[in-house]
Amino acid sequence: MNVNIKILFLLFPLIFRLPLSAQNTGEQASGLSKSGTLYGTDSIQEKQYKFIQDLYDSVLNVSSNVALNGREYLLYFSPHVSTPVIPVKRYPTSSIIIQGKTYRNLMLQYDTFKDQVIYYDPNNLENNAIIPVSVNRTIIDEFDLEYPGNRIKFKYLVIPDTLKGRINNGFYEIVYDKTSRFIIKHRSILVIKDGRNLYKYKPQRYIVNKGIYSRIKGKRSLIKALSDKSVEVKKFIKSSKISVKLAEKGEMVRILKFYDSLELF
């Protein structure tokens, strides 16, 4: 019998004995305590319960069980032709925060066409192949994707109703998040060419300033997004020799850091 299964069989009697132990000690045995916990906050039973739960989690590898909250991810594209998934190669060093708890060293990818997080659990096998799972997005607080020498953070953003249609709810890369905000929507569009489906990568950049979402296509749209300090921002862009249309993420962050510094005065 698998060692993990044996350990679980040993745990079950302990779990079911907890209420009886509480009765013997005269402490609260069932229902919620005044503090809203299963047992009293300082009770021996609560400590025992936590110890057993932690042991149970470690045996079952709860990171896998929680992230498997979703459905099987079905491959709908030909990876030899094009792929809407990033990163193309899976690295076992990504992380995800689910309902406030962080799980590290996972294999994750992001489907930029369907706005889905894909999880690969090496223990979730069928015919010696990993079955990918599309994680239920409603339980995800944020996740990181690992690239060689780079890590990018995503959060699920709920967009104000007044902007729906131009920009929608979904996962966005959070590049900069201070007084102003710089986010990227990693997306792909479907193009049919010679009877084949091609997924073209078309990311969109946004600055969020004073609650307003502005898509950034070039210098003009950036200056409009930061219009209250337009003169200073123009001078900074010129002196820094930044081409906004072609700007790397680091250059955009430099501009926003400069803008935010002006807000202090």
Structure description:
This protein is an alpha+beta fold and 265 residues long. It contains 6 helices and 16 strands. Helix 1 (3-25) packs antiparallel against helix 2 (44-60). The protein is globular and about 65 Å long. The N and C termini lie far apart (69 Å).
Core attributes:
single chain; 265 residues; alpha+beta; twelve-stranded antiparallel sheet; two-stranded antiparallel ribbon; 6 helices; 32% strand; globular; disordered N terminus
Overall structural class, as computed from helix and strand content, comes to alpha+beta
How would you sum up the major sheet?
Answer: 12 strands, antiparallel
**Structure summary, number of beta strands:** 16
Order of helices and strands: HHHEEEEEEEEEEEEEEEEHHH
Gyration radius from CA atoms, angstroms: 25 Å
Q: What is the global morphology?
A: globular
Which secondary structure elements does this structure contain, and how are they paired or packed?
Blueprint: H1 3-25, H2 44-60, H3 62-67, E1 70-72, E2 85-86, E3 94-98, E4 101-111, E5 116-120, E6 125-126, E7 129-130, E8 133-135, E9 140-147, E10 150-157, E11 170-177, E12 181-185, E13 188-193, E14 196-201, E15 204-209, E16 212-215, H4 219-225, H5 230-240, H6 249-263
Antiparallel strand pairs: 1-8, 2-4, 3-4, 3-9, 4-5, 5-8, 6-7, 9-10, 10-11, 11-12, 12-15, 13-14, 15-16
Short description, anyone?
This protein is α+β, with helices and mostly antiparallel strands. 30% of the residues lie in helices and 32% in strands.
